[in-house]
Design a protein that fits this description.
Layout (H helix, E strand, L loop, with lengths): L1 H4 L5 E3 L9 H10 L3 E3 L4 H9 L9 E2 L5 H10 L4 E2 L7 E6 L5 H12 L6 E6 L2 H14 L6 H11 E5 L3 H11 L3 E5 L3 H4 L8 E4 L5 H6 L35 H18 L2 H8 L5
Parallel strand pairs: 1-2, 3-4, 5-6, 5-8, 6-7, 8-9
């Protein structure tokens, strides 16, 4: 989006665990048109971008997700720089009609739980037997996951399998949660999509796994979290654009607008405002 918007210089910061630079990340940066990359991450990277250092330039806007420390840092520097959103721990909500293989849905829930112990993974379905099948799949598949400890802690703390009265009720609950990632794992996802008002990204159908959106499905994947999808949108071109208001009033136009402005200004007790408008009135 920054390239499309015409941003003149795009700077990326990226952590390097164990001092190793990930060639895939650098390749992606090159494809995306990043101009400069700095190997620093976390809250300290946010501070460096906001205030500048001897080696890292100060920027105008900071975008992108991160852990709780990054989110807190972005909140603190807002005003010094612009930010896109306060992106919290990752979330997934799956609405399932019971037709998708349980292993698929179990792994979709794992895909967010493995991010962070604070990640949220929720399944809503009107099919109680299907919920039991997904739970059984989770119990069977979890031991083989490399990040099993993180997944288990996340699911125990912020995971839920919820039996709803109907698919309609599942959509109502989803709107209240306003999840970052919302999968409609159903044979007719187009039937339910019109009922869904709040979500960062909506994945339609059993074959549209959230992980595809993470890496290659197309739309930007910096998404609102923690219920902010009620009033926020995914990162896009508009986040890298700004607008200025242009006002030009003719001598004739100033006669009508000046009287209105003066009357309102006197009502507010702002005499200089009123007189500035009145000076342009013709006698």
């Amino acid at each position: 989006p920054a390239q499309v918007a015409g941003v003149q210089e795009i700077i990326m910061v990226v952590p390097t665990p164990d001092g190793l630079r990930n060639p895939l990340v650098l390749a992606a940066a090159a494809v995306a048109g990043v101009h400069r990359v700095f190997t620093v991450g976390g809250a300290q990277a946010v501070a460096a971008l906001a205030y500048g250092t001897a080696t890292i330039p100060r920027v105008d806007k900071i975008t992108g997700p991160g852990n709780a420390y990054v989110a807190s840092a972005k909140k603190r520097v807002f005003g010094q720089v612009g930010i896109d959103m306060i992106a919290g721990p990752s979330e997934i909500l799956v609405i399932a009609d019971g037709t998708t293989p349980p292993d698929w849905v179990a792994m979709d829930l794992f895909s967010q739980a493995e991010h962070d112990e604070l990640a949220q993974s929720i399944l809503l379905s009107p099919d109680a037997a299907y919920l039991d099948a997904v739970r059984a799949s989770m119990e069977r598949l979890l031991p083989e996951m490399p990040r099993a400890a993180v997944i288990r802690a996340s699911l125990q703390g912020r995971g839920a399998l919820i039996h709803t009265r109907s698919m309609e009720e599942a959509c109502e609950i989803s709107n209240r949660i306003a999840p970052e990632h919302l999968e409609i794992s159903a044979t007719e996802p187009q039937r339910w999509e019109p009922l869904l008002r709040h979500a960062g990204a909506i994945f339609m159908g059993a074959y549209t796994s959230e992980s595809l959106g993470d890496y290659c499905a197309g739309p930007n994947h910096v998404l609102p979290t923690s219920g902010t999808a009620r009033f926020s949108s995914p990162l896009g071109v508009y986040d890298f654009q700004k607008r200025s208001s242009l006002i030009e009033v003719s001598a004739e136009g100033a006669q009508g607008l000046g009287r209105i402005a003066a009357e309102l200004a006197y009502g507010e007790g702002l005499q200089a405002h009123a007189r500035a408008a009145e000076m342009r009135l013709k006698a």
